[in-house]
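Reply to dn_fold:

You asked what the input looked like. This is it:
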Amino acid sequence: MKKTICPLLVLFLCVSCLENKDKQVVRDVEVLEMSDFKPVSFLAIKENIVEKSDLVKLELTDASLVGQIAQMELVDDFIYILDSKVKTLLLFDKNGSFVRTIGKRGNGPGEYTSIASFYVDAEENKIGLLDPLALKVHQYTLQGEYVKSVSFKDNGYSHIKRMDVLNEHDLCCFTSAGWNEGCGYFVIDKSDYTKKEQLYSYPFLPSGFISYSVNTSPFCIYDGAVKFVTPFSDSIYCYDGEKVQATYYLNNGLKEIEPALLQQYATTADSDYFSVMKRIKDDGVYTQGLNNYFETERFIWVEYGIIGNAWVWDKELNEGFVFDGYYSTKPYMNNIVYCKENTLVRVWKNHEIFSYKNALAEGNVSQSDIPQEWNTLIENYTEDDNPMLLLWKMKK
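and this is what came back:
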């Protein structure tokens, strides 16, 4: 794989600044040539990258019906799931057995009026539940016992899509475009939830109330730093608590669009991010940018724009590969939504499971492609059941 080290530059973050208030970016970039990434199928590469895989069926009870998983956290032997349809934080054990809900709706102590996001701080035995309507973060123990509520002033927090613990003092937050003055990534203080650092601003504000929602997991916390990607850029950025640094550049042969031209795209197309990305993709000159990002001890896993391919870089072997047919209903390593240390997680949805069951019945797929113990779970799955989770523990 050809790799190039770019000279050290100091500049603002590509096309992404609305104003000069983002952290300056230090560039010391390793260039990965995407043309050298080898196309592979998941089954062909699985044994080389996966140490262990698990299929977890989330128990269905009257209190644990899962409608739409907006956010997930794996901590110790437990799975925390935020359901965006019923606005409930659910706690399951590692086997999928339902344990309890965290908090409940209401206006009393320990109750919330809304949930935008949450974080789990294992070191402090704390869950923080973001309640934007009440302008509070409600704190609970990991066992779900109410501790206290902390008020905050910035109502732009209501559109935080995900927050995570960065270090002992700070949280990293990600919001949709069109809200919070176009701020995409920022750092807040864990003690009083005041904003400390703005890391990235979106390059334009969409019209109306349409927000940027192409991605689901554009950042992860790895090795004490925030690793993140942005629209219309093929760089991978790292915030280590002091500076933002572009660490990798995925060269796909397409240019990164200039800010002025991007504004023209935004005004001549429907002014939402998906429409602008689609037009840029169709024109074939400029990049759509990177979409979702995950990193484990050995692998970097990136999803590219609205194309939907997964590009994987092996840090140990210094080689890359790209998955063919990334979007599939089969129980393979695709549509990843979450990363925790060396584990990647996919939500296997109801319609995907039934599509796979039909393919099995018609002989279009083989049961030998998956672990034998999964077959019973799949065969007994019903239309009323919760989605299942596919957990892939990656090799080191």
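The longest strand covers residues 25-33.
Hope that clears it up.
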